[in-house]
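Risk mitigation, structural track. In case the binding assays with 2-acetamido-2-deoxy-beta-D-glucopyranose fail to produce interpretable data, a predicted complex structure has been prepared as a fallback.
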Amino acid sequence: MSSFKSISVAAAVLLAGSVSAQTFQRLGACPTLGCVFPPDQADFLAGQFFDIRLEVHAPKNGTEAIGLPPDEKFTFTLAKGDEAPKPVTEYFAIQDSKLENWTFSWYEDLFARDAKKPTVVDVRAKAYRRLALYEPGEYTATLNYNNGSSTKATWLVRDLAEERKTKNVVLFIGDGMTTNMITAARLIGHKSINGKYQSKMQMDKFPVLGHQMTHSIDSFITDSANSASAIYTGHKSTVNCLGVYADSSKSPFDDPKVETIAEIFHRLTGGHVGIVSTAFLADATPAGLTAHTRARSEYGHVVDTFLNGITNYTWTKWDGPDVLFGGGAEQFYTPYLNKTYYTEFAKKGYQILQNRTSLLAAPNTERALGVFTTSNMAKWLDRNVYRSNLNQSLSPTGDKKPALDQPGLKEMTLKAIDILSERSGDKGWFLMSEAASIDKMMHVLDYDRALGELLELDDTIKATVNKLNETNSLKETLILVTADHGHGFDVMGSVDTRYLAAQNVDRKKRDAIGVYQNSGLSQYQNTGNLTYTDSNFPKSWDPRYTLFQGLMADPDRRENWSVHKDGPRTPAVEVPEDSDDYYANPKDGKDGILLNGTLPVENDQGVHSLTDVPVFAMGPCQELFGGVYNSVDLFFGMAECLGLGRGTPPAEQ
Ligand SMILES: *[C@@H]1O[C@H](CO)[C@@H](O)[C@H](O)[C@H]1NC(C)=O
Ligand SMILES: *[C@@H]1O[C@H](CO)[C@@H](O)[C@H](O)[C@H]1NC(C)=O
Ligand SMILES: *[C@@H]1O[C@H](CO)[C@@H](O)[C@H](O)[C@H]1NC(C)=O
Ligand SMILES: *[C@@H]1O[C@H](CO)[C@@H](O)[C@H](O)[C@H]1NC(C)=O
Ligand SMILES: *[C@@H]1O[C@H](CO)[C@@H](O)[C@H](O)[C@H]1NC(C)=O
Ligand SMILES: *[C@@H]1O[C@H](CO)[C@@H](O)[C@H](O)[C@H]1NC(C)=O
Ligand SMILES: *[C@@H]1O[C@H](CO)[C@@H](O)[C@H](O)[C@H]1NC(C)=O
Ligand SMILES: *[C@@H]1O[C@H](CO)[C@@H](O)[C@H](O)[C@H]1NC(C)=O
Ligand SMILES: *[C@@H]1O[C@H](CO)[C@@H](O)[C@H](O)[C@H]1NC(C)=O
Ligand SMILES: *[C@@H]1O[C@H](CO)[C@@H](O)[C@H](O)[C@H]1NC(C)=O
Ligand SMILES: *[C@@H]1O[C@H](CO)[C@@H](O)[C@H](O)[C@H]1NC(C)=O
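Fallback model:
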């Protein structure tokens, strides 16, 4: 996907940095030449498994060059509170691990990049795997290296109540969803009279509202992989990382891991796990629950971890989720390391579902893998309004036929709850349900499709609350609705699309935009004749007066602020091919205004933004989620509510 091309190019070449505008970094979260992961300020759940990675760097050239080989005799100690520091081997009663060595290179700034002069760094490193701290309190971890230099990390094992207060958790993630988008979705999906809405979003009805800060460990803008890691593990990480801190080695699989909420919940309680997403399943937000890799693009590895967990060394008892529903059939019919995962899942007793009809008909007693399309799932707008767009070669079997019978997020989520409830008994369940294409459609500036996905998420939440209420399990289920990051989206007025199309000059076309009193009222409920069983969607997606909406940072594009009836938008195209130089797509937004981008020209899409994102909470422990806090606090809140903080080592695992 091109949306991540620029991210992965950037992240592969550039590892961390320090100062000004486009910062390149030697290694994120390691400003000195001695690196400790988990780094300073890391918080842990008592009993949560994690790996330690130590690195000593010796830059061979560049501004930090020290002209010496890296220290091979570095030592590492750990101390709780005021206690005397103990060598790590003594602290955890483990063998010392072998010394590793490698080199890596990075660019110190844009000038070095343009001149193709990378700085080369020689590294000595060690890793200690599968450790846990059981006693709450503050710890000091110290790496001593280079004859007297030291890197200290203060770690906190949080002191959480051990009593379990909720049986189940549903975590809804509107990928990329912000308060501004919720406001816009409400405007088109709900009828208003004289400034008063006649109905509310389901999210609006949640009793507790919080704000979480989404920034990553080494950059203030996050991607979905490292924000998923923060929410699922309580540890901030680096762009593209899933369940690991990023080290500097080449392998994307040897980075220091941290255990996720799904793994801990399953290991300690035997509770069941469900994963639902409208993205391809190997995508970051679903992947983050089980995968542990520096590179979110290791899709084969991701799918293997869904089924088998970590296989390199015994990390945790993992026997697969009860429910895995979404898109991305290409990872299930194309072999990875000679294994075809439809077959692998079937061998482990999963029923394989490939369309909506069989999803709805499936028994609730068996575990289920539901993969309903190749690539990302069809958008709500295409499944419900512009259905001819489903006519593409995306069948989940890989036979190149269209995937016409796809479920929506609501059907997948309700079925997941049926299966989890049926199978989990007293043990309870944890379900993550992601509206992935809010983000994917905002990336391509397809605001209508993004808002359609958001309204579908809200409709799903409403149906979930009703279902749990009907089955008497609402009071034993914590429901959270949040996002992993935002996009700089907002609505600033309205557009008279008829007037816009009738003008010939761009500066005159801008008259079509109505601001303040000329914005008027939303036309999406008043015109048109679309009706749905659950009616909180627009009656028309194509009124004359549309929303004047957009993002803070864009590629070049042409805007006519009208719905894209022919399928998801392609705002910019590469000219010439393979030039990494993107211009407004001449076929997009005809009769619209040409707007030049502000992003670097290799971007064909919009990007994530800094904004805090909302957290709506309902159910047991809802009070833990009010106020303003860090994304990692979501993990600790869920873990506390599920009673997962264990002060003593479990007798057996
Ligand atoms: C690692 O150390 C060994 C032994 O000193 C050396 O032969 C090898 O070239 C080193 N590898 C790297 C990548 O520096
Ligand atoms: C550092 O050394 C490498 C390999 O010798 C070289 O390619 C690179 O240009 C050097 N970088 C700087 C900043 O001098
Ligand atoms: C540390 O001390 C040793 C012995 O005095 C010396 O050989 C080495 O170069 C020193 N290393 C650093 C990084 O200063
Ligand atoms: C297992 O670990 C080794 C070394 O730590 C690494 O090279 C390899 O890629 C890992 N494999 C997987 C599947 O994680
Ligand atoms: C996959 O199968 C081929 C052909 O049988 C074999 O050469 C290769 O080693 C296998 N790869 C793995 C990872 O098992
Ligand atoms: C749905 O899947 C079932 C089972 O694979 C298959 O028999 C049926 O034909 C499919 N229905 C459609 C509409 O594709
Ligand atoms: C589906 O697409 C194919 C190829 O683009 C086309 O030939 C066919 O007429 C389309 N069918 C429908 C029902 O739109
Ligand atoms: C749950 O159902 C009861 C009985 O129908 C109703 O009174 C109550 O408002 C419902 N609660 C929620 C949160 O929907
Ligand atoms: C209303 O419905 C009719 C018939 O279903 C359709 O032809 C027409 O285009 C619709 N009008 C609008 C404004 O959506
Ligand atoms: C606006 O652009 C879209 C996408 O190219 C196109 O489908 C639509 O017809 C255009 N609408 C108007 C009113 O020009
Ligand atoms: C937009 O960019 C094009 C070149 O890509 C340039 O010719 C044009 O002047 C720019 N327009 C504005 C309004 O800056």
